[in-house]
Design goal:
The chain has 300 residues and is mainly alpha-helical. It is 77% helix and 0% strand. Helix 3 packs across helix 8. It is globular, with a radius of gyration of 19 Å.
């Protein structure tokens, strides 16, 4: 594994950490405003941050603006559907279940990758299975406590969008500047979220309610949207999409840890074991597939 791969993995790990801690803000932010208004507000902040960075850095958009715009629309639509379903689902289910169900994309991506003719190594499949077991132990308290309610189902539908989003970014992040692509996707997200906000959330759509939720909006907008999604695009330039999904699935682990540290939530032995297993799956996925071959050759 070269230095660029390590850089990509560390970048994705940081994105997962930010997203995991942002669950607290996502729940708190909907005390006064609806999910579409929350997403509109946070994405406006992301646009301002990314736009300022583009202006200061004097990054120019490529000549092939049509293709870049197409990529931005596709990424923006997928992230709009994914974030909308996640925010709506959080109104009817817990953050732990949301993190677990969202992480179903680590299983969806390899299957979608088959249709895109991506080669999936056996070690990756094993890592996916191990990671899935860890996430299950982390988020589901017992074998009899997993019920599919309305919120669970809504979040589950969103996991398909996150899987598609990772694969689309894997394709376009190697063609365009990730900051430009991230900026455009949030423009699309803002427009679509604002339309839904005015259409479905008129009763709570007031400046007073938005101002009262400013702390949650600011964190989700600047850190989760502006920083983390850009880190995702940068990291995926150098990382296999399936490995990227495994690293990003650590979002659920960081969500549990942030709940323990910030909200004084107690982590059970089962949840702690789930954290350990997920970390093991990530480490296993990073082992070079030819390491054992090299040792065998040296012994001979």
């Amino acid at each position: 594994m070269n230095k660029k791969s390590y850089f990509g993995d560390l970048t994705l790990l940081l994105a997962a950490f930010i997203w995991g801690t942002a669950f607290v803000a996502q729940i708190a932010g909907m005390d006064r405003i609806g999910p579409f208004t929350f997403n509109t507000s946070r994405s406006v902040i992301a646009i301002l941050c990314l736009g300022l960075y583009l202006w200061i850095s004097k990054i120019k958009f490529p000549e092939n603006k049509v293709e870049l715009l197409k990529a931005g629309v596709i990424c923006g639509f997928l992230i709009f559907v994914g974030t909308s379903l996640q925010q709506i689902g959080l109104q009817y289910t817990t953050a732990g279940k949301t993190g677990f169900i969202t992480s179903f994309y680590i299983l969806i991506i390899p299957f979608l990758g088959i249709f895109l003719k991506h080669k999936i190594d056996l070690s990756i499949w094993i890592s996916v299975i191990i990671g899935f077991i860890g996430l299950y132990l982390l988020a589901v308290p017992s074998l009899t406590d997993f019920s599919v309610n309305k919120g669970d189902f809504i979040v589950f539908l969103g996991s398909f969008c996150w899987a598609g989003h990772i694969l689309v970014i894997d394709h376009y992040s190697k063609k365009f500047n990730p900051i430009c692509l991230s900026f455009l996707q949030f423009v699309v997200l803002t427009i679509l979220s604002a339309i839904c906000s005015f259409a479905f959330e008129n009763e709570t759509l007031t400046l007073y309610n938005i101002a009262a939720s400013w702390k949650a909006i600011a964190y989700a907008g600047f850190m989760s949207s502006g920083i983390a999604y850009t880190l995702q695009m940068i990291g995926q330039k150098y990382t296999n999409p399936v490995v990227a999904s495994l690293i990003l699935s650590l979002e659920a682990v960081f969500a549990a840890l942030s709940g323990y540290l910030i909200l004084d939530e107690v982590m059970t032995n089962r949840e702690f074991l789930g954290c350990v297993i997920v970390f093991i799956s990530i480490i296993f996925s990073q082992i070079p597939k030819d390491i054992f071959k090299k040792k065998y050759v040296n012994l001979k």
